[in-house]
Structure formats: structure tokens, C-alpha cells
Design goal:
Layout (H helix, E strand, L loop, with lengths): L13 E7 L2 H6 L3 H16 L4 E8 L2 H13 L4 E5 L6 H10 L3 E8 L11 H5 L7 H10 L4 E7 L19 H24 L2 E6 L12 H8 L2 E5 L1 H5 L7 H14 L1 E2 L9 E2 L3 H21 L3 E5 L7 H7 L1 H10 L4 E2 L4 H12 L3 E11 L4 E5 L14 E5 L9 E5 L5 E10 L5 E11 L11 E5 L3 H10 L6 E5 L3 H11 L2 E4 L1
Parallel strand pairs: 1-2, 1-3, 3-4, 4-5, 6-7, 6-10, 8-14, 10-11, 17-20
Antiparallel strand pairs: 9-14, 12-13, 12-19, 13-18, 14-15, 16-17, 16-19, 17-18
Helix pairs in contact: 3-4, 4-6, 7-14, 7-16, 10-11, 11-13
Length: about 500
Amino acid sequence: MNPLNTLKKYDKPKIGLYSTGLKAYWGQFPGLKKRLEGYGKFIESKMSEWGEIFNYGLIDSEEKGRDAGNYFNENSVDIIFVHAATYATSSMILPIHQRSNAKVVMLNLQPSKQLNYKETNTGEWLAHCGACPVPEFANALNRSGIEYKVVSGLLGLEKSPEMSVANEVTKDDPKAIRAWTEIREWIQAAHVKNVLSNAKFGFLGNTYNGMLDLYSDFTMIQAQTGIQVDVLEMCDLDEILPTIKENDINRKERQTLEMFSISEGSPSEQLAKKPTKEALTWAYHVAAAQEKLIKERNLDGFTYYYHGAPGNAYEKLQSGFILGNSLLTAQHVPAAGEGDIKTNIAMKICDVLGVGGSFCEIVTTDYVNETILLGHDGPFHLEISNGKPILRSMGLYHGKQGSGVSVEAKVKSGPVTTLGLTQTGDGKLKLIISEGEATDGETMKIGNTQTHVRFNTDPDSYFERWFEEAPTHHCAMSIGNNANLFKKVGDLLGIKTVII
């Protein structure tokens, strides 16, 4: 159980919904309009678990289309679902999406698996012909330069409408389950887009000198994601340190002891020892200051790195960062080291979706077990840990100045998905996604996070495919098979996405 209070809570995404129909049908086929509106209410009810629903209702004229577009704009919806309930002309829906720039997802959800052909009249058939207008809708949107996606399958009702002559109970049918999985993922992706477009990330210090892949243009970041970057200095954190009280330090100690195991000395690394009381107290002190900084600046993510003259006060301050940044990540403010804001954004995407997001790079390759070890000496997402993480005291941070308490952990065994965010030569962001399997393989006892991951091909083939995409050398690790979900996030953000 996570004893930490979340530092960030977000409202549900705002979801637009409407159904389509042809006004001429209502007088010809009594009960059809009410039946289709019932289907729309069912969809609204299902979606309301994941978002705040703004259901305009049935669109059966161009005038209603224009009004619906204004309605969705007034409510600032993040995504619009078009329920193709029965045939309607495309002239009715085009005005909606000319007025609203929210992403469009068309729902082709048939109520029954098969018509009762012997007893079906025209009105009954029209309740099942939702696929009929979708090509027309798609054509009109495409020619108008409006992007769209389509989800097809069964509606998933638990009982048939009274007037139906077909069996419409399809709740447990795989085609209904698949369709609703897609719908849920689109809503989750819309939530990510909404969070990022209103987010503020702190950037403390600088990027690790010479890591050219990590350098980022903050204007580019905001233009493509909506994230505002708040540039911070070490003195912003340093001035908070004296304000931290003993009870703040004690609170961090309690949280740490509940969530971590304190190590003894490493059997293999002389630099990795049991943390001293002084080192732990300093880490608790810094962690409390970090949390206060996040609250004061209202940050949704935290990217950091500091390099200064050996032995200066800020270097000592940074030496206490790793524990605090792992705690921040568990409090839904992911932290990324070495000034890598792009991977910080990837971590945030994972965290908003509830699938983790630990800071990783390549550690080594295990050719015996055909796995790649991924991990880092920096922030770890405690909610996806395989058991209690361990705190070790590092006499020296490899490749960096300073020393301090570090986190040693591995991700839960089972399906995992890595998410990398890189920048292309033309300045565009690009998501790189890989699904694999985390195994409980043996790891080093050197105070770093490490997880064995077996991808869908041998390590060398995987490396070659990955490196061809020009990634950054960091990525975020999540639990679960999330490639399709991450792909939807990329689609909504307008970011090119590659699945390896």
C-alpha cells in the first residue's frame, strides 16, 4: 500500500457524444427514434465510468449539427464520439467538426450479432444499419481535412429492447469487449492530452553536459504537448531547506521505512554500503524540501540535474535527490534525472494512465537468458516494484560528482511496455514503443534499478530496430501491454508513433 498522499489530482476528461439519424425516419417507423436514443444513453452510461460525458443526443438535421458543434466547444470537450446509430447524411455531422477541433472517433457498434431475418421489417433493420453511413462520414471528414478514427464491433447490451425481434444481448461477446476496450483507451488517451496541455514541469539545473540526445527546445515542448516548462535554479530549492522542520523530516522517514528496505553493505561493490543515519537524515531533509518546492510551484513533473564545482553546497544538495525523486514519482509527480525532460514527459504519460513509468536506460545484455537489463541510478516508480525497493549508500555516483543514498529495485515480473520520447531532425517529437516481458532474473547489487526484459525478438535484432529510430538513450518502463494505448496518446497529441 502506498502511504504517500498524491501531490496531483486531475478531473476526468470531458467527452463529447452524439448519435446520428434521419428525421424522415421518425414518422415512418414509430419507436425507432426512442430506441436509438436508448442506445445513446447506454453508451453514455458506459463511458461515464471514465469521463465526464456531454451527450448532445440525436443529430438528425444540419441545424442540430451546427448547434452541437457550439455545444461541444462551450464545454471544451477533449474528444468527440460519433455514435452511428442509423443512416444520416454527412451534411449533418460535418458542421459539428468544423466548429470543434476535438479528436473524432466514430462508433460503428451493431446491437445484435445477426438479424432475425424472418421477422425483420424496415424499421428493425434501420436500428442495425449503423455501419451504412460511416463511409460517407469518413469521406466528408477526409475531404475537409478532419482526422478521424473508427471503432467497430458490437454494442454490448445486457438486455434486448422490448421492440427488438433480434437477440441484442452481446455484453460478453469478444467483439463487444474489444470495442469497449478501444473506447476506454481513447478516453484514457484524451485524459493524457488534457493533463499535458494544462501541465507545468519544473526543470532544475541543466542537462548533463554532452548528452546531445537529451537537449530540448522548451518552445518545441510547449508547442507540441502544451506543457509549460518552469526553469528553476538550485537556489530555489536551497532556500527551502531551512524552512523544513523536524516533523517534516520525521514524516519522510516514516514514509521511507514503510516503502523501502535499508540495505547492508553490497557483496560486490565497495562503494555501495549500508546507509548511515546521517546520509538517510539528509535524504529525508532534501525529500521534504523537494515536496515543498513541487507544491509551491504547482508542478506536474520534475526534471533535474546539477553539475558544479567539486565539493560545493549545491552538489551536496543534489546528492540527496534520488530518494526524494522516487517518492515524488510515487506521488504522481514523476522525476527524471540528467535533465531529460522528454523522458520525464514519457514517465508522466505512463503515470496518468496508471501503469507506472520508471526512468530507464540500457544496463547490459544477458545473452544466456536473451534479455536486456534496463534501469538507472535515478528515479524509480515505487508502485510497479517487485517487492520492497532497497536503499543503498553510494560512495560515488558513477559518471557524476557526489555521493548519497540510491534506490535499488526491479519492476514486477510480467508484461511491460517501454515508452521513449525522442526528437527528430526536423524538431518533431516522436514516441517509440516496445512491448516485452519482465523476468525475475538476477541483478547486480550496486544501488541501481535493474530489470531483465525479454522482447519479441533476440536482443541484437531488437537493438538494431530500436537504434534505427534514433531514440534518446533513456525511456520510461510501464507494466502491462500498453502499445495500443500509447499509440492512441500519440494520435491525439499529433506526435508520430513507432511500435517496435
